[in-house]
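@here heads up, posting the sequence + SMILES for the zinc ion run so it's all in one place. Ping me if the SMILES looks off, I pulled it from an old spreadsheet.
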Amino acid sequence: MDTDDEFMSTVSSEDDMLPDDSDNDISGDDDFGFDDEPDPDLGIQQDIGQNKRAPYDVSFRVYEPQDIQQQQDVLIDEVNMILNISKEESAILLRHFRWNKERLLEQYMDHREKALEAAGLSQTTSAPPKLEVIPGFCCDICCEDEEGLQSFALKCGHRFCVDCYRHYLGQKIREEGEAARIQCPAEGCNIIIDARSLDLLVTAELTERYHKLLNRTYVEDKETLKWCPAPDCQNAIECGIKKKDLTRIVPTVACSCSHRFCFGCILNDHQPAPCELVKKWLKKCADDSETANWISANTKECPKCNSTIEKNGGCNHMTCRKCKHEFCWMCMGLWSEHGTSWYNCNRFEEKSGTDARDAQAKSRVSLERYLHYYNRYANHEQSARLDKDLFAKTEKKMVQLQKESGMSWIEVQYLSAASMALQTCRQTLMWTYAFAFYLARNNLTTIFEDNQKDLELAVESLSEMFEKPVTELADSRLKVDIMDKTSYCNKRRIILLDDTARNLSEGKWIFNVEFSNPTPISGPSSRK
Amino acid sequence: MAGFATKRLGKELSKINSNSLPPGIELVSADNFEEWFLDIRVLDNNPLYLNEIYRLKFRFSAQYPIEPPEVTFVKLADRPIPIHPHIYSNGIICLDLLGQQGWSPVQNVESVCMSLQSMLTGNSRNERPAGDEEFVRANRLRPKDIDFYYDDNNV
Ligand SMILES: [Zn+2]
Ligand SMILES: [Zn+2]
Ligand SMILES: [Zn+2]
Ligand SMILES: [Zn+2]
Ligand SMILES: [Zn+2]
Ligand SMILES: [Zn+2]
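bot reply: prediction finished. Complex structure tokens:
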């Protein structure tokens, strides 16, 4: 598992120097809207420690909940010291300025009153917030006017009964996941409800959630931080890649929970395809799902004897039980031809112009072309799943075998390494087909297709070894073969990613679609 | 919680019944506290809406008025869907005050009707929102789950 080792070592080498932010500072001063600075190397070529980073690799750090809390505390302490205001007020100001300390200090120095006002902290509110009973008061939300009704107003004077305030805050906090920027309920009033007032009004059951949401704003407000999207993972990842960089790099990051995802769009790792192509591709697949549905079927007919063949592992090398015909599941072509240099299972042969003169023929060719790539994309997705299922079954049998034969656990670790490699490589292969769909031919595409083919062949042959019965898998010769194939697969994957990422960063790929620029990838990542 | 919306709607209803609604707005039915129907028409001579009456459907959640009501135009034989750059031909309205961000709980059925009335009165463009056909064909979401982009609230 070369790749994962590399990711892990990147993380750990940075973990060692974690408290020291000074040199490789990606959380630094320029993360707030200064997007027009030239940034030619996109942070890709920077050195981390002494290692030269690979072109497909980005620098990132994993933060656990206590790290995130600590970073906030540090900033709050700094503002508290510099401005000589309470920590509570420092926190409110920082949240208001989206945790941009420099901007906060600048604004505070220049227009103190305005900054306080905007954050809902103006001097007149220094008296602690309190509930009041006002004679003759009628609440504009529930229209109640009974005597002795407890009410509350922010400094804007818009007064509502406590019950309505609680309903309102409950809705905002529980349903809408808001905390730091909840406004006065009055129409068109922009006054923010500050933390002290919230503490007074919010019911005990919501306090914890409210404070959790307040903590979240720290991550959500920073362009350099994103939550790990894995379910139940509380970590955040820091990465300096900005939206405008996403046409030049695919920033895959790996959380310590082992989830690998794209920092640009939060989807699962989709190297080598850039975020925008991924978005286009997924949309196209969703739009055309009916046309392409037949492909994901688990059964096909043998091209020779027409008997029905079911796929139960990920391997695409099929042998018909009945007639022993060997063929490729993807292209239905002869398997024996797949190892040879002239055979291209992965490349779509563009028909010459004369073939596609009229519109109908053109649209047929364009559909065929799409299906060619979709077929292979969907197939790797499906095969990855089948490989995984097969591994789960094999693992069970292996445990059984260990008990019976007394083999130690470490001796079968190579199988889980092989399974991991299959998953990662198929994930990459899958996206090479989406990538290829949008790729216009130039002198570099042949190299790409060769790399794709080499990786594919390596993966299929590893996948095939995987389908062997458990008794054979335990054989030491096969074990060596599997270990060799595993590291070969990982190596081929690195070669492919290296080539695609380098050309992407140098702008050498020509795509047959326009990249919209600037790239609106996705809204702020908010989790409830 | 259900009591919250019911109490407020009860008060709105008794106010409507005693004070009556502003000109051009009429209550058609309010048989329960989940769904009300109202008719509105413009009061000036805007040729786009001349001599037409439009039917509005209000749906209230148990969180009303903390949560906005779902308000749509309903098409009937004598009640067309008004033409407007923010009203889709299936009756869905793209108006920020009906979204979670723009809504304020001090709003009520009457004030929403008045806003829609003035939204029609102020309009001179004889057109549907961009992408109306596609939206009407493809949309399966409830209005409150649609993320409208309130590009131009002056229309
Ligand atoms: Zn009230
Ligand atoms: Zn107010
Ligand atoms: Zn994670
Ligand atoms: Zn992405
Ligand atoms: Zn056969
Ligand atoms: Zn093939």
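MO: Residues 359-405 of chain A form the longest helix (47 residues).
MO: One more: The interface with chain B takes residues 140-143, 164, 167-168, 170-171, 175-176, 185-189 of chain A (CB under 8 Å).
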